[in-house]
Give the backbone structure.
Amino acid sequence: MSKKSVEKLDSSRLPRHVAVVMDGNGRWAQRRFLPRSSGHKFGVDALKKIVRHCAEVGVGHLTVFAFSSENWSRPPEEVQTLMDLFVKALERESPELARQGVQLHVVGDLSAFSTEMRTLVAQAEALTQGNTKLVLNVALNYGGRWDMLQAAQALAAAGEPITEAALTRHLALAHSPDPDLLIRTGGEHRISNFLLWQLAYTELYFTDVLWPDFGAEAFDAALADFARRQRRFGGVPAATTADKSRAAA
Ligand code: FPP
């Protein structure tokens, strides 16, 4: 990304945390008469570019939906392709993530994965744990309902009182603030059991661009759209300077 386009973004109106549903890999491949698995491979390349871009522009947290609790129902070959991609990406990309100052977390129900996969996840997380440039959360075998359920079960098992703050502490994303902006590519307008608890006041941004085509410019368009939003969190708009001077007169 050029220095110029970094400067164009108003850093005071940048989201601290962006969540992304990376949709459209399959259609991207089918339009090119390629197998769906090839779309996922290009999807990994798109993700690498967006990670680098987030670190450059100063978005502090990026959470991506890589594999949902429901994705197991896809054809076995496609599930296998995705698993192979995750393993390869963990092996190959962790040193580069560490170099870029990225702190990696894999969030989701990892009990479904092989010991090999869980070891790779633990190694990649350990390699990147002290980094502060960007927190990258990769949601794997993740579902918002699963997350709330496991948090509630953890509270019950510990005999802790069930409060909003206590439940939040047990969620898979306890180490990140709630997302300010959710981007969904691929033209669908759904949350699809992503961060159900954390999206309560998140600004939603939908684009028809398919994930493998989603680059830095498309990401910046989402940031620019976010910068124009007026967030109220259930309250009333903050008084403008003009309102204040009228009130004082
Ligand atoms: C949705 O597109 C995409 C997925 C289910 C997989 C997303 C995974 C990646 C981009 C790879 C990420 C890799 C790592 C290492 C984290 P789709 O298949 O539903 O597309 P369609 O709607 O066009 O069928």
